[in-house]
Design a protein that fits this description.
Blueprint: E1 5-9, H1 13-26, E2 31-35, H2 38-47, E3 53-56, E4 59-60, E5 63-64, H3 66-75, E6 81-85, H4 90-98, E7 103-106, H5 111-122, H6 134-137, H7 140-149, H8 154-164, H9 169-176, H10 180-194, H11 199-207, H12 212-215
Parallel strand pairs: 1-2, 1-3, 3-6, 6-7
Antiparallel strand pairs: 4-5
Helix pairs in contact: 3-8, 8-10, 8-11, 9-10, 10-11
Length: about 220
């Protein structure tokens, strides 16, 4: 492999640096751009969409869990995203795939396994840790939620994320540089697509994709 461009999105500089060095040792002529938050990753991809892969941590400033993954997949559909996380719960891995990830690499993986995973994804395959039974790890509720959320536009995803942060329509309008009427229209569309009756119900549904659903029983984050 050679001549690729990756974005590493992780809020831990030491891990970003270690992963970047490992990738450069394994891949010839590789350009790696680092982002410490979801907003930084989005800004990088907005400026130049000619990246081949995003390596995404599940928990970073401004995002938790699957919402960041979902937004990147909605906004930059042509760029594959591989989740790199310390959480190795099979249910979380299954949900990452449901929300559009092209692969899942545990942070405990050896360099050779990381290289194997990335090679597979760049060849158009989906990669998960060996011996993982995704069928047994499936969760019908999360699969259905992922299907509904996949119908949202990128802007509607952003509005839903902001609703989850407790922002009012006026605040969302300011953040997105749109009118309050536009925000209200987005909220109405979100409620319809998620088949719920209120903002509160939409926020509850969004809460199921924030990662905490899988972290309750695990002391490990990331």
């Amino acid at each position: 492999m050679s001549g690729y461009r990756f974005v590493i999105a992780d809020d831990h500089p030491l891990f970003r640096d270690a992963l970047s060095h490992a990738l450069n040792d394994a891949i010839d002529d590789l350009t790696v751009t680092e982002a410490g938050s979801l907003d930084e990753a989005v800004s990088i991809l907005d400026d130049d969409k000619q990246y081949d892969l995003v390596l995404l941590d599940l928990k970073m400033p401004g995002v938790q869990g699957f919402s960041g993954l979902m937004y990147l997949r909605a906004q930059f559909a042509s760029v594959p995203v591989v989740v790199v996380s310390a959480n190795e719960d099979p249910r979380a891995i299954r949900s990452c795939l449901d929300f559009g990830a092209s692969g899942f690499i545990p942070k405990s993986s050896a360099v050779a396994q990381i290289h194997e995973a990335i090679t597979a994804v760049l060849n158009g395959d989906v990669w998960v840790p060996p011996d993982l039974d995704l069928f047994d790890s499936s969760d019908g509720e999360m699969t259905e939620l992922a299907a509904r959320l996949a119908t949202l536009t990128p802007q509607q995803v952003r509005v839903l994320m902001m609703l989850s942060q407790g922002l009012l329509n006026k605040q969302i309008a300011y953040e997105l540089s749109v009118s309050e009427a536009t925000v209200k229209a987005h909220v109405s569309a979100i409620l319809q697509k998620l088949n719920v009756d209120s903002r509160t119900q939409a926020v509850i549904m969004a809460g199921k994709m924030d990662g905490d659903y899988w972290y309750r029983d695990s002391p490990i984050e990331g």
